[in-house]
Amino acid sequence: MNEADLLEYMENNKNLDAIEGIFENENYKLGISRVNEQQFQAIVLWSKNINQKPGEVKAVIRKEGKKYSAQFLMRKCGWGNNTKFKL
Q1: Coil vs helix vs strand at 4
Q2: Are strands 57-64 and 67-74 parallel, antiparallel or unpaired?
Q3: How many Å apart are CA 23 and CA 52, to the nearest integer?
Q4: What span, in angstroms and rounded, lies between the C-alpha atoms of 63 and 23?
Q5: What is the pLDDT of residues 25-82, one digit of tens each?
Q6: Regarding beta strands 57-64 and 39-47, do their DSSP bridges make them parallel or antiparallel, or are they unpaired?
Q7: DSSP secondary structure letter of residue 48
């Protein structure tokens, strides 16, 4: 999925979860979209890290009620521990 695909997905889906969208900081631009009812994925749209390529999955996010947990892909060690957060 690239940024154009994500923008089209967001435009065509009116029942987006609060976590779905495009998020960026100085190092990454990530697109988050739904995989199924309880799971989302964060896809790299842009990265300063040359090891992270656009289109790669950066995180898998699970919705647990009103909370979320994420496993982030760490290049040197694979999938990291779950990180819990609430929007």
Answers
A1: helix
A2: antiparallel
A3: 16
A4: 18
A5: 999 899 999 999 999 999 999 999 888 899 999 999 999 998 999 988 876 555 555 5
A6: antiparallel
A7: S
pTM tops 0.70, yes or no: yes
pLDDT in tens, 67-85: 999 988 876 555 555 555 4
Strands annotated E in 1-87? 21-24, 28-36, 39-47, 57-64, 67-74, 78-79, 83-86
Residues 51-60 as b/e (b if ≥16 CB within 10 A, e otherwise) read ebeeeeebbb
User: Is residue 32 a contact partner of residue 21, using CB atoms and an 8 Å limit?
Assistant: yes
The residue to which tokens 């892909």 are assigned: 73
Whole-Å CA distances, 37 to 16, 28, 40, 58: 11, 26, 8, 19
Map out the domains of the chain as residue ranges. Answer: 3-86
Query: Which alpha helices (H) appear in the chain, and where do they start and end?
Result: 3-12
Q: How far apart are CA 34 and CA 32, in angstroms?
A: 7
Structure tokens at 73: 């892909």
